[in-house]
């Protein structure tokens, strides 16, 4: 680390400690602790009798609604999609109380405990009004210089100009300089009274813009947590059951409790040991053995108050209408980035440090604040893949990596998702994780197109010798469900991961963390709300492996990049790939 950078971070840490001493009431989102009691009734969904509710699904053009022109009926003679339109199913009949009390014994994250006693949103004035809120540059009384720290205070107010006496908003911030396209995320502190503090080390000079966005107000988090807590998910899959001309569809989830079904079919064995269940078809002539595959069912509907519906029917890109900014000037010289260790030589435990910023953009290149990548990424990739099998396992965003990488290295495909370079004696393989979606049917066309494996199976398949690199990703499909499914999945593969690392000393495992995306087709269907909560769970569950597994922080990177889409653009995908290879030992 260079003397200038070393001095900057020494000061940054000292200032952090002083900040904690002077402001003991602050909430660092990564370390916040809340002692809140909760009860089985918290896991029961019942619409308030004295509040008019509206369908949440009315604004979703992409969310399929199989029951729009079908009369709700429990008839066992139903056909196809009609079979899901059951008057006894709370998903379609919101007057029926949903009992999800079995979730009572599942661990609850602190972020949800913070909101569990919050009341329903019934008035739009309960949420922040950014036009009334105030940004203050706390270091504005003196000239800002590099090698110092920038502090920005945000005070949230309602539409009447009153301070909001609560915290818990998802506040994100970044600083950019248009010259040379410098960009970096900032660390946010929550005072739990409507006041937030954002802190940046000043790494470069010039005219800069600090942007602050709040994709999810506390009231939205409260609402989303309640829906996930009482309904498990708002994004379902459809199970297809067929026998001769008879075909019926039911709802499916990776939990054995599916609302509206008394009997459940267990397809965990078909899903390579990862839990998967579907409701039993209503016809007595169809059994679980008549299961023939899956389809996507984006339908997302719960009874919402008018205020909740309006709040969650916001503009698709949250940073366009929830953004506050301030322009400021920083004097001094840009800080040198020399004498940093190679990222591949950085202790793996350092990658699990969530101190922000983890890195910054210097033009089109993303530079870690702790280490440096190779100057020649092509050479780095060639050396990293020499006599190496790289296994990329995850969802469609990991497939993006696979497609971009294989095009770059010009390897030869020996199977649809296996590509080799004979001169390197290395290969790259993509595996779709065992979490069913439209293109990963446990039966049918999806099963023929992809290799579907659980994380446990992948780690169990690693031999005693040979150079293997596993880059794994768990995010998009897990973000659609309550986070306990994510936690259960991690816990399920830890023994296999431990054995694989003990068995093969050359094995390298890197976990691709979640990324932000501001543009969603429909907020209740799929969004990045769960992202930072999944990061927290991942860090808790992987405590034992911090010295043996690399964590790739893409949350900070995607904030700095202001990434819009769940499937990032090619340029950003390559930024992520470069970051991956920076941490692979040659």
Report on the architecture of this protein:
The chain is an alpha+beta fold. The protein folds into three domains: 3-33 and 124-222 and 314-330, Sandwich (Immunoglobulin-like); 62-96 and 236-297, no CATH class; 343-582, 3-Layer(aba) Sandwich (Rossmann fold). Helices cover 23% and strands 24% of the residues. The strands form six sheets. Strands 21, 22, 23, 24, 25, 26, 27 and 28 form an eight-stranded mixed β-sheet that branches. Strand 19 and strand 20 form a beta hairpin. Mean pLDDT is 86; it is low at 1-14 and 19-27.
Low-confidence stretches: 1-14, 19-27
CATH class of the largest domain: Alpha Beta
Task: Estimate percent helicity.
Answer: 10-25%
Q: What best-fitting shape do the alpha-carbon axes yield?
A: globular
Family: Belongs to the NXPE family.
Protein name: NXPE C-terminal domain-containing protein
InterPro entries: Ig_E-set, NXPE4_C, NXPH/NXPE
Organism: Patella caerulea
Brief overview, please?
The chain has 586 residues and is α+β, with helices and mostly antiparallel strands.
What's the helix and strand layout?
Layout: H1 3-22, E1 27-28, E2 44-45, E3 53-55, E4 98-99, H2 110-115, E5 134-137, E6 149-155, E7 170-177, E8 182-185, E9 187-190, E10 195-201, E11 206-216, H3 218-231, E12 236-243, E13 246-253, E14 264-266, E15 277-279, E16 291-297, E17 303-305, H4 306-312, H5 318-321, E18 323-330, E19 359-362, E20 365-368, H6 377-384, E21 388-394, H7 396-409, E22 412-415, E23 418-421, E24 426-433, H8 445-449, E25 452-453, H9 455-460, E26 467-473, H10 484-503, E27 508-512, H11 531-541, E28 550-552, H12 554-561, H13 570-582
Parallel strand pairs: 21-24, 21-26, 24-25, 26-27, 27-28
Antiparallel strand pairs: 1-9, 2-4, 3-17, 5-6, 6-10, 7-8, 7-11, 8-19, 9-10, 11-18, 12-13, 12-16, 13-15, 14-15, 19-20, 22-23, 23-24
